Amino acid sequence: MKPIISTDYNVCFNVDAYTSLNTYLQQHTYSKIFIVVDTNTHVCCLPNFMGAISGEYDFEIIEIENGEIYKNIETCTAVWSAISELGGDRKSLLINLGGGVVTDLGGFVAATYMRGIDFINVPTTLLSMVDASVGGKTGVDLGSLKNQVGVFCTPKMVLIITDFLNTLPSNEMRSGMAEMLKHGLIADENYWNKFKNLGNLTLDDLNQLIYDSVIIKNNVVLSDLKEQNLRKILNFGHTLGHAVESYFLNHQDRTALLHGEAIAIGMILAAHLSYQKLNFPLKKVAEIKEVILNYFAAIDISDVELEQIILLMKHDKKNAYGNVNFVLLKSIGDPVTDVVVTNEMIIEALHFYKK
């Protein structure tokens, strides 16, 4: 697969990813190379990754805890401190080997340590491959508020090595599938249609779907890096989805949802809101619900819980001038940004989801 050219870096795949990394390390002299891993990727991914690197380098491994609850400033402080104590300077390189928590947090650490050091992202989950791989977004959560603190900062390269997917449990694979479904809904109905029947999916099919998904997101990012206009379409399903994710993460009586599980709920609700606001065909809403629920089990959310979720939604960073802004669909592949909806519409959408 040919590298995908993004803003000022390449997204490289599989064998070419390792070749590109080795060439890059040979051509650049870094004082130290730090690799950020979590407790899972340290065991499951780091040995194979290190084994594919040719040459002698001064590597330092920094491990963080696994999970969204550790995507915070406290973890950043621990990583900044570790880099400093291990002699990191402005000529250091940070390699982030992990899922979206590692790449988002590691990118933010690199962007801010000594006002910025180089970094490379190696996403190891399906979600991070198709979502966090392009766009230059880095950041961490602020309490229960998702990605509330961060900066735009691009890596030197992104390496997508799909063999790492063999280490993932099935729920993590489904979580990544949500973002791929989203890419089809906002950009390409033919791509969306491929997800209606994946019963005979092969590894080659998955590689191509990942590649196509990255191309869809990259095309959007190239036209609007700082999310001033078109890039907002990538937030389809996220306005409510992030709020659902935050609510479940911070209520001990509820099992925390993976990002994709929450976004799946958000997309079904957004599809029904599209019907209410933009006359999106109800038949298509039902199709979207059916396809998504083929991948994700329905989650029970009460009206009382929804009230709390709506309050969280008002903190979403995509809002402006006091309005909660949604991305909705006129048709599949034809999204509309900055649509304001009422709480009553959201409640009606929830009742449709729960039917």
From TrEMBL:
CDD domains: DHQS. Residues 176-319 form the 3-dehydroquinate synthase C-terminal domain. Its cofactor is NAD(+); Zn(2+); Co(2+). Keywords: Cobalt, Lyase, Metal-binding, NAD, Nucleotide-binding, Zinc. Pfam families: DHQ_synthase, DHQS_C. GO terms for cellular component: cytoplasm. The keyword Metal-binding applies. Transmembrane segments: none annotated. It comes from the Bacteria. It is an enzyme of class 4 (lyase). Gene3D superfamilies: 3.40.50.1970, Dehydroquinate synthase-like - alpha domain. Residues 62-174 form the 3-dehydroquinate synthase N-terminal domain. One of its GO terms (molecular function) is 3-dehydroquinate synthase activity. InterPro entries: Dehydroquinate_synthase, DHQ_synth_AroB, DHQ_synth_fam, DHQS/DOIS_N, DHQS_C. One of its GO terms (biological process) is aromatic amino acid family biosynthetic process. Its EC number is 4.2.3.4. Catalyzes the conversion of 3-deoxy-D-arabino-heptulosonate 7-phosphate (DAHP) to dehydroquinate (DHQ). NCBIfam families: aroB. This is 3-dehydroquinate synthase. The lineage of its organism: Bacteria, Pseudomonadati, Bacteroidota, Flavobacteriia, Flavobacteriales.
